[in-house]
Amino acid sequence: MKVNKIMGLRLIVSMIIIIGFASCSKKSSSSKGSRATGWNVDSKKGSAKSKQEAGPGLVFVEGGTFTMGKVEDDVMHDWNNTPSQQHVQSFYMDETEVTNAMYLEYLDWLKKVFPPTEANYKNIYEGASPDTLVWRNRLGYNETMTNNYLRHPSYANYPVVGVNWIQAVEFSKWRTERVNEALLEKNGYLKKNAKTQDVSAESIFDTETYFNSPTLAFGGKKDVVLAGKKGARKSTTDKGGKVVAATNIYAQRSSGILLPEYRLPTEAEWEYAAAAAIGQREYNIYRGQKKYPWSGSYTRSGKRQNKGDQLANFKQGNGDYGGIAGWSDDGADITNAVKSYPANDFGLYDMAGNVAEWVLDVYRPIVDNEANDFNYFRGNNYTKNKIGKDGKVELVTKDNIEYETLSNGKKVAKSFPGQIIQVPVDENETYLRQNFDKSDNKNYRDGDTQSSKYFGLSDSGTDVKKGKEERKMYNSPIHNTNVSTDSLGNMVKKFDSSNKRTTLINEKVRVYKGGSWRDRAYWLDPAQRRYFPEDMATDYIGFRCAMSKVGAKSEKRKSARNN
Questions:
Q1: Residue 116 class from Cβ within 10 Å (0-12 exposed, 13-18 middle, 19+ buried)?
Q2: How far is CA 539 from the centre of its chain?
Q3: Backbone torsions φ then ψ of 229, nearest 5 degrees
Q4: d(C-alpha 548, C-alpha 279), whole Å
Q5: How confident is the model at residue 446 (pLDDT cuts 50, 70, 90)?
Q6: Is residue 215 a contact partner of residue 209, using CB atoms and an 8 Å limit?
Q7: CB of 204 within 8 A of CB of 396?
Q8: Could you give the CA distance from residue 157 to residue 339 in angstroms, rounded to a whole number?
Q9: pLDDT tens, position by position, 54-83
Q10: What is the Cα Rg of the chain in Å?
Q11: Regarding predicted confidence, which is higher, 51 or 500?
């Protein structure tokens, strides 16, 4: 009888534990939160997620070696994809492309914090807004998308388009700050709900400002930026009665609480993640080369349950964007909702088709693996914090905020109030260095003399026979970026009327990768690469964010074979 009671008690305890785990799992899976910031956007208080191992919306991509630029087909014959062996460090990448809902969260925040009705901020919201006119076509009726694609709830989970490279970079910066301030709030370093209730144009959180001078963060509000509750040493007195100041009262880099920045992935990272060759791994080798992000040489599924279905959203042929009515090959005519197609072996969706994606790199026809074969990236422009006469960092304010005028006349904010003003590095950082010697490195080893964008230079670096513009390696159109208005309010522009231009390549064109809903299957190969001006947008280019991983290469114990 006693044994039966013990067995019964054990059974009851086991059932309680199982129910507890089930309820926790259900609670976790049903919790709501933005995949952009981790905020509960349905709550007026904007509370953060209770647990975060990686940044919101990100999945882990373990780094490794791969052959970059190896394409199965090269019908263009443009010498644009020369295979080279590269190594990429481990990083995190967005599970999906940034969606309309995620981008609208950004716009709503900007509109609240920087009211467009105020003169100092009138260009911030407009400069961040996607260009909805990209849907228009001279011989096509697309006004439905022009008016509805960005904001209609039917398109909420569709990838955002009409965003240029500059806007994508600014969204990534904003996302970094919103995620990190939520983490500080969670750990007791920021006043609860300050990120929604106390935020204004004069009091904004910025990660680098917080690290360098916490008392200046959030506009210097002491009731918002708090002394941490975890690991902080309070003020005490020593044996002599002298007061010893408190230490570690603010979060530091060494605290490990705040995340690295969200950013666009580099071309090498994007291509490595899209190819997902890890699915071909056996021991320490790859079993062949994949043509697409999925295994096999065809765009249709060979699995029994969905045999014949297209594995991506792309253009099937002339006048065929999704098949005939009642039988859609890929289930879409324009873009499609994210996660509509199977993920690749890294768990990433839509790395082929749907929309092409901006990456961080400045475009050049070659990838110089002789100069570097580790975390390859062209576009480094090193800066440092501007220090004032008082020895403290100088911040952007509403009075000194600067805007960049794009070639189309649109103005985009270079930085926001509360951020540290950045200036180019100088000889104090470059003197006698071997790894870099100047701030702007876009044109380093660009196939011309002395790593310059000009050709035909003499040993002294000058050539008196030719003018500066005539010696440009990339003789691209020059746009007037100082667009002004006349007395009647009309926009005054200056177009480059020269008929001697030889290329569209310059320092302001960026790489974009992956095929889109407008592209044929040829462009679905992860190694394919194209370029587009950084200040222009289209209806087929979107983006996703990445984040560097700090620490170990792997997140789990290794096995000898990947099955």
A1: middle
A2: 18
A3: -90, -15
A4: 22
A5: confident
A6: no
A7: no
A8: 9
A9: 889 999 999 999 999 988 877 777 767 889
A10: 27
A11: 500
Residues 339, 212: Cα–Cα separation, whole Å: 40
> What are the φ and ψ backbone dihedral angles of 178, each rounded to 5 degrees?
-70, -40
Maximum Cα interatomic distance, the chain, rounded to a whole number of Å: 108
CB atoms within 10 A of CB 478: 15
The pLDDT of residue 112 is above 90: yes
* Token code pair at residue 450: 């002395």
Q: What is the DSSP letter of 279?
A: G
Q: What is the mean pLDDT of residues 455-479?
A: 60
Q: Which amino acid is at 108?
A: D
3-state secondary structure of 501: coil
Burial 372-389 (b: 16+ CB within 10 A, else e): bbeebbbbeeeeebeeee
Instruction: List the single range of 46-50, 270-274, 333-337, 485-489 with lowest mean pLDDT.
Output: 46-50
Tokens 């006004």 sit at which residue?
143
The answer to whether 524 and 245 are in contact (CB under 8 A) is: no
| Residue showing tokens 């981790």 | 38
CB atoms within 10 A of CB 484: 12
| DSSP-assigned letter for residue 56 | T
454's CB contacts (< 8 A; 6+ apart) are 448, 463, 468, 471, 472, 473
E strand residue ranges, 461-503: 484-485, 491-492
Residue bearing tokens 């009726």: 141
Reported as type and span, the H/E element at residue 530 is strand 529-533
- Say how far apart CA 33 and CA 27 lie, in whole Å: 13
Residue 415's contacts (CB-CB under 8 Å, 6 or more residues apart) are 396, 401, 402, 421, 422
Determine the Cα–Cα distance for residues 37 and 186; give it in Å rounded to an integer. 13
* Of 227, 231, 230, 234, nearest in space to 191 by CA: 227
pLDDT for the residue numbered 45: 47
Q: Which two tokens stand for residue 254?
A: 């060494």
What pLDDT does 300 receive? 87
**Opening angle at CA 525, ends 292 and 541, nearest 5:** 115
Residues composing the chain: 563
Nearest of 549, 561, 560, 558 to residue 273 by alpha carbon:
549
Find the Cα–Cα–Cα–Cα dihedral 136, 139, 140, 145, rounded to 10°: 10
d(CA 442, CA 324): 47
What distance in Å separates the CA atoms of residue 179 and residue 38, rounded to the nearest whole number?
7
Tell me: the pLDDT tens digits for 190-210?
999 998 999 999 899 999 999
* pLDDT at position 479 over 80: no
- Token pair, residue 515, equals 């095929």
> How many Cα atoms within 13 Å fall on the side-chain side of residue 131?
24
Backbone φ and ψ of 449, nearest 5° = -60, 135
Contact 339, 98 (CB under 8 A): no
